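User: Please predict the structure of the protein below. I'd like the answer in structure-token form so I can feed it into my own downstream comparison script.

Assistant: Understood. Taking the following sequence of 159 residues as input:
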Amino acid sequence: MTEQQPWYKQFWPWFLIILPLCAVIASFATLKIALSNSDALVAEDYYKDGKAINMDLSKIKYAKQLGMQFSLEQHQNEILFKQHGGPAYQAALKVEFYHPTIASHDLKLTLTADANQRYRLALPEPLTGPWEVRLEGFDGTWRVQQRIELKDNVQLWLN
């Protein structure tokens, strides 16, 4: 008669224990990833954000009524804005670039016009890919907003 080994010295019990143990470890790893990487696209106070969107729409409608139109050109590390329509605007211009997925890449700047009525934005590196661009008057009465695909040496129209 052969002597039976204790269960902890056999292969199959350990094999059957390790499979569910791997699933438990993977679920804890997934939980840690989910808790450490929160979704930045979810608004905490959606009601106030919704009211702000309605205010933004009135600014966009007013800009269309005025006929505000700008061109955007990117040459290497410089972006150039020039007004082409609407009443002549010579005050400072609020410029905002929003990346569709990465909030840390967003830019919010105030630009002033040079002698040729062009607004220049110097960047450390060129922007490429899809961006939401907002141009707003310094007084905040009008806004031009458009989603664009930025490339080097291409002129785009914002209206």
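That's the full token string. Strands lie at 69-75, 78-85, 93-98, 107-111, 118-122, 129-137, 143-150, 155-158.
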